[in-house]
Every structure is written in C-alpha cells, then in structure tokens.
Amino acid sequence: MKLIRLALPVLALACSAAGVAAGDYQPGAKDVARTARPFAGADSLRFVVIGDRTGQHRPGIFEKALAQVDRLHPDFVINIGDLIAGNTEDQTQIEAEWKEVNGAIDQLHTPFFYVPGNHDLTNDVQRQIWRAKLGADYYHFRYKGALFIILNTEDPPQPKIARKKLLEAYGVEAMGKVMGALQGDPAQAEALFAREAKLGELATKLRASESVAISTAQIEMVRKALADNPRPRWTFVLMHRPAWKVASPAFERIEAMLKGRPYTMLAGHFHKYAYERRKEQDYIQLGVTGGMPGAKAEDPAAQDHVMWVSLADGAPQISNIRLDGFFDKQGPSPK
To answer: Is 278 within 8 Å of 258 (Cβ atoms)?
Structure first.
C-alpha cells in the first residue's frame, strides 16, 4: 500500500475533484497516513433492494430487514414486488394487509419505492387500491444521474389461476418439489415430471400461470423515459416477474429499446436467487426477504437477504447481505 504526503492545497483540490467539499476533510497533520484514493463524492449512489415478502410470508423477517437497512442509511430502498398476500377482492382485508406493511415501511428514515407484484395486483380491485393508496403502478425516475424504470408485470392483472388455488389443490409438498425442479436443472426437472404425472401436471399449470402482462401504454412510458434520458450514468430496470424467463413480445420490445446502453435488470417472484449474463448485461432474480424460500433451507440461493447497490464510477457494484449476517453492537445473539 502506497502512503502519501500531500500539501494541504493539493489535498483540498483532490477532495474537491472527488465531489467532496474542500472543508469536509481536515487533516491534523501534513503527513496523515492514508492512501491517495479520493473520497466518495456527493454523486455516489447507494440503494437497497428488498426481496419478496409474501408467498407464505414469515412474520417479523421483513420488519427486521427494514430496521437493519435503516441503520445503513442508503439513499433509498426499493422492493421487487409481493408485499401483501392479496389474492382477494375483499377491500377490508386488502386495506388491513397494506396497513401492516406500510406500518413497517413508515419506520424507515429514507424513501421507499414500491414495485408491484402478482400478490399486490391479483385483480382490478387491488389495482384500484394500489393507485389510490400508493400512486402509479409503473413509472420511472432519475436520481443522481441514474435512470430507474419500474415495470408492472401484472398490467393488466393476470387471470385467476393464481398460485394460491394451485397450492390448495396440490398441497405444499408438491408445490415445493415442482418449484424447486423448475428452478434447477431442466433435464432433471423433465425426468421428475415424467416419473410423477401429478407433479408434471402441476408444472404445466404453473408454467401457464407465469405469463407476463405489459401494456402498450407501459411500453410507451419506457420509450419516452429512454428518449428523455439518452445518456444516464446507468439504467436500472426493476419488475416482479423475471420477464426474460418467459415468452413476452412486450418485454422483448423493451429489451430492444435498451440496446446500446448499459443497464441492470432486477426481478424476484421465484423466491430463489439467480444470476445470468444476457445481452452482455446483468439479469438478477432476487431471493426472499420474509417470503417462503423457493428451495431447501440449506440452499445458499434460498436465504433471506437484501441487495446493496452502489454506483460511483463505471458499472454498479452489487453485494448481497444475508439477514443472519447482521448483528447489533452488543454482538451476535447466542444460537
């Protein structure tokens, strides 16, 4: 490690060039032992992405995650859908579920951005409540030079072949086996479905229920957002269902619009972390933050986590933090 000895005027200039005001760093000696690296500037961007809360959600985990994240003081927090259980047109129940979730979100000291999931927008009643309570269910915004595009993969809400009905019909064990198989090796999955006809039947119905709905109006929103922001520092696209995993002409149009610019795709829905490099860009499917893991507990891709994203120079840096990796100043709790 190379240490430096800088005259104060030179050091002040370096701090200013890095986006740090000259008075922010005040060394007590000319020969402070530090490297020549500049300080993080005011244009550094740091945000947190939260995974699925629902889908047989486990009480307290989402709330714990928000409390831990709040201590890190990111610029903002954003989720990738499925905050409430939904799957109902009972307005009293929907209101109660949003009250519970927003009670936890309101404890944050930083902004929280909502991304709709299939549980949040199962039907038109839920969509009307979303719009009245939260605002737009697809939108974009720019922050510190980066462009964020929020897609709604339930636009319009999907037919009522919801997983809840399949879960009731086939049971938790069968659903777990099929979901795990669909997230694993395709050849092994097909072999399993061939051996066990009931699981193969469930797999067919699950695949049929995984269609992505993106309206023409939403595509136009994306087109305009990209036209109005031709050269952002980076483009982040967030949605609930990973639309790149199904046949979606609408999503393919959006991908075509993104060609030529660096971007990162983030989604959730399958309750298991997955990464792939597609079109020379990062496409990431988050795991859960309170939802039921989509694989066995020992699978490292099925742990509760949050994603920390930082953007300074170049491509964003992504770190995933398991919730059991956090502990308070008193030290880790005894097992």
So the answer is: no
Q: Between the CA atoms of 243, 245, 249 and 254, what dihedral angle is there, to the nearest 10 degrees? A: 50
Residues carrying CATH 3.60.21.10, the chain: 45-153+213-325
- For the beta carbon of residue 267, count every other beta carbon within 10 angstroms: 25
Residues 42-71 pLDDT 10s: 889 999 999 999 988 899 999 999 999 999
Q: Give the residue, 223 or 11, on which the prediction is more confident.
A: 223
Q: Three-state DSSP class for 56?
A: coil
Contact by Cβ (8 Å): 155, 137: yes
Q: Which residues pair with 281 in a beta bridge?
A: 278
Q: DSSP secondary-structure letter at 117?
A: -
Whether the bond into 156 is cis, omega within 30 of 0: yes
Which residues, 6 or more positions from 10, have their beta carbon under 8 angstroms from its beta carbon? none
- Residue (of 95, 166, 137) closest to 240 by Cα position: 137
Closest CA to 144 of 111, 118, 116, 190: 111
Residues 286, 310: Cα–Cα separation, whole Å = 17
pTM here is 0.85
CA gap 141, 175 in Å, rounded: 37
- Reply yes or no on whether the pLDDT at 4 is more than 50: no
Question: Among residues of the chain, what percentage have pLDDT more than 90?
Answer: 65
Distance CA 162, CA 171 (A): 14
Can you name the residues that pair with 77 across neighbouring β-strands? 48, 112
Is 28:288 a contact under the CB 8 Å cutoff? no
Q: What angle do CA 56, 137, 57 make, to 5 degrees?
A: 10
The CB-side HSE value for 167 (13 A sphere, CA atoms) comes to 9
Taking the C-alpha atoms of residue 8 and residue 23, their distance in angstroms, rounded to an integer, is 11
Its CATH architecture, for the domain 45-153+213-325, is 4-Layer Sandwich (3.60)
